Amino acid sequence: MPERSRLSERIYRTFLFLILAMGVFCFGAIVILLLFYSHVWYPFKAGCPVSNKILLIPVMLLSAGAVVWLRRQGWQDKTFDRLVAISVPGLFLLQIFLFYQIFFESGWDANVVTEAARAIVARDTESLQDVSGWYFSHYPNNLLLTLVISLLLRINGALGLFAGDYELMSMVLVNSALSLGTAVLVYRTLVLLGTGRRAAFLGYGWTVLLLAFSPWNVIVYSDALGLLFPLAVLYLGLRRDIPPLLQWPLIAAVAYLGYQIKPTVFIVLIALVGVRLLEALYRLARGQRIVWAQVRRRGVALLLAAVTLVVIHGALNQAYRAAGLVIDENQRYSLYHFLMMGQNDVSNGGYYEGDVGFSTSFPGYEERKEADKAVALQRIQSRGLTGQLVFTARKVLSDYNDGTFAWSMEGNFYRDIKPEPSAAAGPLRDFFYSTGQYYPIFQTAVQGLWWGTLLLVLVSAAAALYDLAGKNQCSQAYLVVLVSLIGVTLYDAIFETRARYLYIYVPFYILCAVLALQRMSRRGTEPCRTKVIGPQLLSSLGCSGSRKQPGV
Q1: CA dihedral in degrees (220, 223, 226, 228; nearest 10)?
Q2: Tens of pLDDT along 173-228?
Q3: Which of 7, 550, 538, 542 has the alpha carbon at shortest distance from 274?
Q4: Do the beta carbons of residue 549 and residue 299 sit within 8 Å?
């Protein structure tokens, strides 16, 4: 038995090494590209006026200042809790004022879904049938988004909150609340990870700056609306005080609803289940006995989660039909369509109208799928290994070398700019609009903040790998976060891409960055590592063992 335990330990540590090494390689490559190759041209390049090499100086100074601040003592934990609670209402009011001043209606897909939502409210069946045939049948993932917007428009009309051209501010109101809710959840997640309130408060402020006051909250689309879902799945998965019979149905519900808004939400669910499964197999390999009562209880929890999915799926389909959104399943795109588009040289893997026209030229789903697959594979094979690596590097630059997350890069972006409601609107629009005279200041500020975040993600992954070499184990919680970031990076490197596709996972990058700063401050616990295999998130599958969770 001891020999078996040693073998299972080696296998488990090998898996951990491969995951952490992949994280170091992935973000090491990103940092190198952003540091030495940001001058490379590619389609839809943001073009920050200050290079990443120059921004490295203030980034390092700010990081050093954050480390010094984390080492300080004085404030109690309750002080930080109160600061978060007190600041949220004031920040929310500030958000609404700011976003009202710069509010506009955008074009591209955002305009399609908002007009469809207005048609639902107006009961315009003819328009709904038309848009369902040419748009929602291809992109059914935007059905729930459209339904949510129509519901908010009805509520706004009943309450009279925003009149006339500003009726979509009701959605901006929700976006603002969700972004602030995300900042609070970053704070609570870091506390759960064991960083302490001071470091958690740093993560809260970081999220407020990068997300809560991001102009993307003004855009009525899935990016801002989907922001909370990945972090909520992670938070629910890490909570040990929620009974499994409630926890897994909740995770299933949040993940599925998030998937209907942004399909990449499922990446964190895959990471969570995968890491837990790895831990369970490790414990079984070590010969820990199975507690069948726990297995049955978890089996019931998973059954309830499946029932939850079926119920939500059925309810949503019924709601779509009731709203007049009836789609043709035969018109949907397969994953090969997005692979084909993601391998397009003209758009550097971004949206390309020519690929859309090619896919829609095939009337049947199977025929379309095979044609898209053939083109996608032909593009990959024609480049060869070196060419494919260069192409992928350009895609990674497009994704990561833009702290604005491709702000203003979509078609007809400033479609309907509203009249200035006050004297403050002019300067604010000059700051946030890409056509404004102060926009380079905004662009440089967010680029520096994002660049610093990515550097610290690399530090956190390298520190975890170093700890593993020193016979320490990486906590499951950190593994879930890192695997999620690797997953979303690989997804964007392979399929259709845009920098804003990273937007809903920005809280995960911030979590890693704060963990790195906490590690450098050497204060309190070091949540990326633990002397034991922890946290024991999968002992609940039926393997016996302690219920304590060091290293969470």
Answers
A1: -110
A2: 999 999 999 999 999 999 998 888 999 999 999 999 999 999 999 999 999 999 99
A3: 538
A4: no
- Number of alpha helices (DSSP H) and beta strands (DSSP E) in the chain: 20, 4
Rounded CA Rg of the chain: 24
pTM summary value: 0.92
DSSP 304-319: HHHHHHHHHHHHHHHH
Structure tokens at 248: 């897994």
SS percent in the chain: helix, strand, coil, step 5: 75, 0, 25
Q: Under a CB-based contact definition with an 8 Å cutoff, are residues 396 and 30 in contact?
A: yes
pLDDT, tens only, 295-322: 677 788 889 999 999 999 999 999 999 9
Q: What is the dihedral of CA 340, 140, 115, 163, to 10 degrees?
A: -120
CB atoms within 10 A of CB 341: 25
Task: Please state whether the peptide bond connecting residue 527 to the residue before it is cis, i.e. omega within 30 degrees of 0.
Answer: no
Residue 220 CB contacts under 8 Å (≥ 6 apart), including other chains:
105, 106, 110, 113, 114, 149, 168, 171, 172, 175
